[in-house]
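Researcher: Sequence recovery benchmark, item below. Answer with residues only.
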């Protein structure tokens, strides 16, 4: 799970919270703030949507107790951003059944019972978070990349733990206890790709997943993953997988890796490599 500061810069889980009740905001801060994550408190559906479009949100908590129309406007974002699991939060009361049913209809991942699940909220949410799922799915490097040495595999796991966010080779080298030059040189041996190309591949794979969200366009995806501009994402996608960002929604990660492995694994003398 991507919850440690790997490679000198892996982001802790970022959780968007819409909670009119202070006790639910406190629950979120206790589970994900104070050095264990980042909590973004949205005051409205507009705030919540803006949070998704300005940073990579891993999961969302929505206080659905005595829910208002605004609450359900926030909750409806679960359909716009399905890569981020939504969790309802409500008390354990019989009259909350309609709210439970509505959460299910909106494809919420689960519902937390405040006052009961507080101590385990992190453990319930984190396995479903975008970064956690992305990291787990790619933990073992695909055979097509020919990453067979322990150094290559360690570096791969560190890159994947960033879940598509920006990662620099110098901070990656520090986390592995070697120099940047040594890491770059030893990574690209025995037919393996250049390290910078692998970093770009992982970032494009994350972009492909996020691009499947109805609520995102290419500009949004570029922004939340830290690309300098949509054209930077476009150039990277063309370079490493030979396609435009608008076509990424149709491609699986295995498709991207296959395209990458066929002649796109090496670049021409980047200073970062």
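Model:
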């Amino acid at each position: 799970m991507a919850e440690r500061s790997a490679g000198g810069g892996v982001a802790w889980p970022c959780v968007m919270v819409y909670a009119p009740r202070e006790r639910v905001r406190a629950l979120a801060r206790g589970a994900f703030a104070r050095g264990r994550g980042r909590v973004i408190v949205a005051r409205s559906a507009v705030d919540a949507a803006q949070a998704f479009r300005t940073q990579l949100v891993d999961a969302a908590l929505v206080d659905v107790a005595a829910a208002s129309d605004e609450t359900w406007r926030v909750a409806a974002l679960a359909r716009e951003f399905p890569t981020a699991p939504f969790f309802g939060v409500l008390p354990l009361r019989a009259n909350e059944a309609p709210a439970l049913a509505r959460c299910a209809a909106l494809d919420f991942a689960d519902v937390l019972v405040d006052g009961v699940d507080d101590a385990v909220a992190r453990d319930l949410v984190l396995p479903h978070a975008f970064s956690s799922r992305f990291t787990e799915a790619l933990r073992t490097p695909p055979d097509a990349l020919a990453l067979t040495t322990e150094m290559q595999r360690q570096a791969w796991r560190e890159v994947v733990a960033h879940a598509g966010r920006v990662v620099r080779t110098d901070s990656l080298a520090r986390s592995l206890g070697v120099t940047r030059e040594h890491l770059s040189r030893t990574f690209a041996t025995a037919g393996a790709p250049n390290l910078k190309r692998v970093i770009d591949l992982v970032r494009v794979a994350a972009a492909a997943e996020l691009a499947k969200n109805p609520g995102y366009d290419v500009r949004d995806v570029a922004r939340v993953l830290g690309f300098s501009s949509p054209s930077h994402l476009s150039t990277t996608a063309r370079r490493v997988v030979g396609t435009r960002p608008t076509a990424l929604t149709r491609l699986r990660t295995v498709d991207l890796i296959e395209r990458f492995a066929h002649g796109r694994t090496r670049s021409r003398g980047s200073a970062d490599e």
